[in-house]
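Chain A, query sequence.
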Amino acid sequence: MALYESILIFRQDISSTQVESLTETFSTILKDNGGSVVKTEQWGLKTLTYRIKKNRKGHYVYLGLDAPAAAIAEMERNLSINEDVLRVMTVKVEKIDEGQTAMLANKGERAERGPRGGFGDRGPRREFGDRGPREGGFSRGPRRDAAVEGEGDRA
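Chain A, predicted structure.
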């Protein structure tokens, strides 16, 4: 049997438990047709690059499959019928990698980065005098002119 990797994107308005049950349903279809699911990962709710069927987000699921082509075709047929499925992509691979995929390995990386570097304390805002008085009666003073005298005069 051949090895496949399949990515499923489900609608954003279904719950994680519904995503798990749908994944089990499609795994059962695959097993009934002589295939097996080697690996399953739920990548969670992610923002889509562009809208798909009026959805901006989707639940991503990764499946590592060991199945004949007929079983994959039957699973994809059932996926296309289900209205909770936004997109499916199945690719034939040489081997299915052990361990986590790159999506799960990089999942917490953005949160651990900390504050943006290079900006630091930018100092006080420049005052242009065009906003009126501040609360509490504090006046900002006149606006500084950046133009060189004589530059705006045309004769």
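Residues 94 and 103 are 20 Å apart (CA to CA). The radius of gyration is 28 Å.
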